[in-house]
Predict the 3D structure of the following.
Amino acid sequence: KREEMFERMKELQTEQKLRFAVGLTSANEIDSGGIVPAIRSALMRAIEELRASPSECRVLLDGGLVAPAKFVVQETIIKGDAKEPVISLASIAAKVWRDRLMVELAPKYPEYQFEIHKGYGTAKHREAISTYGLSEIHRKTFCHD
């Protein structure tokens, strides 16, 4: 369903009826600066890609996220992906983008089978990490011995 919704989102973007961007962050950025600053940095990249005008847009955020202060009209909503359709769409876009990225990276790291579990902490993924160790794209701060 997410894939179908994402494809529809891309159609709407092509028709200029919807604008969205996905901000990415690397495992190294998360490991060196922490997950919260990395998420904030990815959020900023997405906002910048949209060329959103701080004075003309309303920013809705999920969980504990906060947009830069220059975006004066912003609201953080706990469990926003279940309460606000636009946050739900953002969640779908992020998950599909990430899943597709993991499938794209799978041939470079075949032993981890990213195309199957998409990097989530499944038993198979944890088993591959135990067998082969961490790859350069794994978050070292997330894995505990």
Q: What stands out?
A: The chain has a mean pLDDT of 92. DSSP finds seven helices and two strands in the chain. The longest strand covers residues 59-62.
